[in-house]
Every structure is written in C-alpha cells, then in structure tokens.
C-alpha cells in the first residue's frame, strides 16, 4: 500500500497544537511496509475536506483521517466521509451503550450532539475507542481504503494499535509478512550517516531503509517483506551487515528501546541505583528517568541546584571550590556527583553544570557543559562543547548524560 494522511482541525492550521498524530502514524505505517506519499492539514471546512479526500484517493491505496470525530458542530469528518462515499451514518449499538454508561455514571445528560460519537458509516468496520468515546471507522470505497481516527493523540494511538493495525494487516494487497529492525546511532549526524549509506539506501527496495533523526541520535529502520518471517529476517540480515560495515562504530544499540530505557534496564539488571544533581538541565535528567515505567527501582532521587549558593547549601559543594574554579568546572561537577550520590545513598551519582545561554557565564560561552559521574569511591567529569539554542543545549546535555552512562559502562564499574 501507499498512504496519505489528512489531519483535520483548524487548531492545527492556527498553530495552537502540533500535528503529532501525523508523525506517529508515519512511523507506524512505515513499519508495516506502507509508504507515506503525502501529509495534508485541513481546517474544519466541509468543502475543503471534500476536496482533500477526492484528491487523496486518486493517489493513495489508503487514506487516513485524524480528528473531527467528536460531538461539536465543527467535527465534520464522519459526515463528509459518508457523503463522499454515498453511505448513511448509522448508530453503533456497543458504542452507544458505552456512551450512555459514561454519562450515567457521572450524572450527566447524554445530548443528541454527544450521540454523534456513536455513529459509523454503513457497511464499514467500526474501530473501538479504548481511551475515549468516539468510535473510529474503516472501509473500502472502490480501490481505496479509508480509516477515520480520533484527534486526541492518546485516543488515536491506542485505536490505531488495537484496531487499525489488525485491519490493515488483514486487508493489505499482498499476503506477505512484514518485519522491521531498528538500529540506533549516536555521535554521528543524520546527513553524515546517510552519506555513508547513500548507495545502500538508494538502491534498496526490499528491504527499505528509512533514516530518522531523533533527540541526540539517528535511527535507521530496515523493513523487509517476504512470504515468511524467516525469509524477511534473512533480507534484513544481509542489509544489516552492509550498514554495520559502514557505520558500526556509531551504532550503540539495536531494537525498539531508546537509550534512556536501555540505560535504566542495565541499572535494574545490575541492582544499582542512580541519583542526579542538576544545574542547567533543571531536572530534565530526572524527568526523563521517571517517565520510564519502573523507574522507582533504579532512580533514587535528584536535586536541582541552579545558583552557586544552592550548590553549596543543597549539594554541599565547597565554597572554596566555587571561589577557585567557579560553578562551570570539572571540580564543581565532580563534587556535585559525589555528594548527591552519598546524600541519596545511591550507587551512581551524575551531575550537570554549565552554560545554557544565551549569555556567557563565568567567562564560558553558551554550550560549555561538565557532566560528573561518581561510582563507589571514584569520580570523573566529562567536558562538552554543545551548540544550538538554550533549549537544545539543555536537551543535548541530558542525552549526553545517558549516553555516557551507557558508553562508559559506569554500571559495570569500568569507566575509570
């Protein structure tokens, strides 16, 4: 299949929210071997939505629409799709039952507008909403498949995972197995990595190779289609060998899990805990850790000490250290790491101190960063010279912290 994604909602055009649904669906569809030809964003306008659907179906085997399934007057997607397909909108009893129960439990009246969320197109497949109220719809019209998904990302992602994927796997043109493998690279830019793999990417059709720049890393997804999983894996293995021969030194991991989860998994497996002392990163390292399910087993705690006095009073950095070397220094980073480890009774301490910008600090330009690592009775600090906006520098510092934990094998005590 090839696909087009149409995001519906004037709030997207006005810049009030970002189209994260399109980004997520592109990744998920690519993993199924479905090529994305175009993204379109349409406001809440009947005529323009009709036009977008008419144009998309001329080019695509699959048209996915997100948004516009709710109860308000500007939720037009089902109405327009029904009119375009020449099908009636009818009530889906299980969805109506869920709606009724939802409002009864809250002592609220179920209005006619809210009942619209239980409508679907006749002779279509209903996609259950596991995280909300409005049901989705999937159907085939002539040679094109249509899929209508809700706008709220937490609803859309769950519906696509639980309902949309099975529909597509059942209705794809070729009865083939789709397998994917992800390779994760760091310390190399997307353009440089693509240049190393240019001929492989350019001449491959099966497997397909899709590079994607992400926060602090570059991801290469290799997807193969074959009659069996074993045949698809063989195709991927041949391409994997070529990729790693060219850029294996930059590949830190293979698989779906990102660096942060991999690092916390390694900590968990080793039975060790970590604590963080943060200045310029403002608690970002701690947030990233706590966002991961099961973080309580490995993340002992953290402290944000932004000012020099806070570093002294909260983290116990010596006044003479700051007076002699400043807060943006190896010495300060090392004391922060050691003291937060001891204070939190953790096995590993990590610290971040530096200049996020936009102005210099203590004679250091923006992007000057020190990351301290303390394990047992040993401590070491690593200098960084980062570039970009204030936000990008802070993000990059956090990622580098996790990268150091992974690369330097701090958890295995062989960093020093």
TrEMBL record:
Gene3D superfamilies: 3.30.70.2860, CinA-like, MoaB/Mog-like domain. Residues 4-171 form the MoaB/Mog domain. SMART domains: MoCF_biosynth. It holds the Pfam family MoCF_biosynth. PANTHER family: NICOTINAMIDE-NUCLEOTIDE AMIDOHYDROLASE PNCC (PTHR13939), NMN AMIDOHYDROLASE-LIKE PROTEIN YFAY (PTHR13939:SF0). Belongs to the CinA family. NCBIfam families: cinA_nterm, molyb_syn, PncC_domain, PRK00549.1. HAMAP family: CinA_B (MF_00226_B). This is Putative competence-damage inducible protein.
């Amino acid at each position: 299949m090839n696909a087009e994604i149409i995001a519906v909602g004037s709030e997207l055009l006005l810049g009030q929210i970002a189209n994260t649904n399109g980004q997520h669906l592109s990744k998920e569809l690519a993993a199924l071997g479905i090529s994305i030809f175009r993204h379109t964003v349409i406001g809440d306008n009947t005529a323009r939505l009709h036009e977008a659907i008419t144009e998309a179906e001329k080019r695509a085997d699959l048209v996915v629409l997100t948004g516009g399934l709710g109860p308000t007057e500007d939720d037009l997607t089902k109405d327009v799709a029904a009119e375009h397909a020449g099908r009636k909108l009818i009530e889906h009893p299980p969805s109506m039952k869920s709606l009724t129960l939802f409002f009864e439990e809250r002592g609220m009246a179920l209005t006619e507008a809210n009942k619209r969320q239980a409508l679907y197109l006749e002779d279509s497949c209903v996609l259950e909403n596991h995280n909300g109220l409005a049901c989705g719809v999937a159907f085939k019209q002539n040679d094109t498949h249509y899929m209508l998904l809700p706008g709220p990302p937490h609803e859309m992602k769950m519906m696509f995972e639980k309902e949309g994927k099975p529909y597509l796997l059942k209705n794809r043109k070729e009865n083939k197995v789709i397998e994917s493998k992800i390779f994760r690279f760091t310390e190399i830019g997307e353009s440089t990595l693509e240049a190393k793999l240019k001929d492989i990417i350019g001449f491959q059709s099966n497997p397909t190779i899709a590079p994607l720049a992400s926060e602090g890393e570059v991801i290469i997804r290799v997807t193969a289609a074959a009659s069996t999983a074993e045949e698809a894996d063989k195709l991927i293995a041949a391409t994997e060998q070529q990729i790693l021969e060219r850029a294996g030194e930059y590949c830190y991991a293979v698989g779906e899990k990102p660096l942060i989860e991999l690092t916390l998994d390694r900590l968990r497996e080793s039975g060790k805990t970590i604590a963080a002392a943060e200045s310029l990163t403002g608690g970002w390292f701690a947030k990233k850790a706590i966002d991961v399910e099961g973080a309580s087993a490995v993340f002992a705690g953290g402290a944000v000490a932004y000012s020099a006095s806070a570093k002294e009073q909260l983290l116990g950095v010596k006044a003479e250290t700051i007076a002699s070397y400043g807060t943006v220094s190896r010495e300060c980073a090392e004391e922060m790491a050691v003291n937060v480890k001891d204070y939190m009774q953790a096995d590993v301490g990590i610290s971040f101190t530096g200049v996020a910008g936009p102005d210099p600090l203590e004679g250091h330009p923006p992007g000057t960063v020190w990351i301290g690592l303390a394990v047992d009775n040993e401590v070491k600090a690593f200098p960084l010279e980062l570039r970009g906006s204030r936000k990008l520098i802070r993000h990059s510092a956090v990622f580098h912290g996790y990268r150091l934990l992974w690369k330097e094998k701090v958890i295995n005590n062989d960093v020093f």
